[in-house]
Amino acid sequence: MTAGNNGADTPENDDPFAHLYRSEGGEGGAGASGAGTPRQPGVPRTSYNQVRAVGERQYGTQQGQPGYGRQNPRSASAHYAAPETLPGGGAADRTRPAPMAPEPRKSRNGLLIGAVAVVAVVCIGIGAAMLTNSGQSKDESGAKDPGPTAADSVEPSKQPSSKPTPGALPKDDAGALRLEGGATTAKDVPGARTASGSYVAGMNTPGASATWTLDVDTAGQYKLWVGYGVPGKDANLTLNINGQALTRPISLHNFAHAPEGAWDKGWTKSWSLIQLNKGTNTIKLSCENGNQCEVNLDQVWLARP
User: With contact defined as beta carbons under 8 Å apart, do 269 and 296 qualify?
Assistant: First the structure.
């Protein structure tokens, strides 16, 4: 038996069990039982198997569509089409949002400049604070006034006191002294260097005096400063220390170079070196015989020699 020539009957008429129920000597088989048409003797049966080339059989496919069996590579490639060429192809690609462009990187130079600027501002602030603190420290820890050491460098106190704080030398307004012999306080002539503007007048009367009582911590030499005013000419007074008159009077020159008669232009100061004891001392300024007493007194104070 060869392929394509296996008999004339179809599979439903080729009953392999026909010999069990056919009549003796009959050929009908299935035909004798009425189940099929008798096969003619001598006519070969045709096989119901359809022979096809390998790869051409398709299973579960419709006509015109490629199957899932083995296919000829050439024929398979003929059925390929790019997705964008099919109906509706590429729609997804067209509707897909375009990728966002990456943000540009910040400039490193910009960041560096910003950092340097911040550091500079901080440094400037710290420097300003240090300078301010330094200035305050200098003001708070400035050197003490060493006190008058020369005739042209001493200013009388505006609030004199005969009992200064420890270590400080006494000073007083002349009006606070004990006045005798016609000496008195006045305010007629302007320019006196006292808080009230008063001064001691009447010193040109013989016997007039102003006595200052004061305390010192250490015995020794001191400069006695006297603030005064003259009417454009020199004057002098007798100086008495602790009851003993000095042979040399205290000179009260016209250091202001005031014109004669100008009492308000003649305010100045002068000093004399004296010896004091530790503790309480008395200093007396008086108009005695031989003195030129036309003078007004406004202040007295001590200084280191």
Answer: no
Q: What 8-state DSSP symbol labels residue 158?
A: S
Q: Between β-strands 235-241 and 279-286, what pairing exists: parallel, antiparallel or unpaired?
A: antiparallel
SS3 104: coil
Task: Kindly report the pTM of this predicted structure.
Answer: 0.48
- Summarised one tens digit per residue, pLDDT across range 31-58 is 444 444 555 555 555 554 555 555 555 5
pLDDT tens-digit readout, 72-120: 544 444 455 555 555 555 544 555 555 565 555 555 666 778 788 888 8
Provide DSSP, 242-283: TTEE-SSPEEE--TT-PPTT-GGG-EEEEEEEEEE-SEEEEE
Is a pLDDT exceeding 90 seen at residue 148? no
As a whole number of Å, the end-to-end CA separation of the chain is: 160
27 vs 268: which has the higher pLDDT: 268
The token pair at 38 is 């008798």
Give the closest residue to 159 by CA, choosing from 143, 184, 176. 176
Using an 8 Å Cβ cutoff, are 247 and 204 in contact?
no
The DSSP symbol for 26 reads -
Q: Which helix (H) or strand (E) holds 122?
A: helix 108-140
Helix (H, G, I), strand (E, B) or coil at 138: helix
Residue 160: Cβ within 10 Å count? 21
DSSP 47-101: PSPPP--TT---SS--TTS--SS---HHHHHHT---GGGSTTTTHHHHHSPPPPP
- Contact predicate 43/5, CB 8 Å: no
Amino acid at 70: R
Provide the β-strand partners of residue 235: 252
- Residue 140: pLDDT over 80: no
The one-character DSSP state at 200 is E
Place of tokens 């020699």: 305
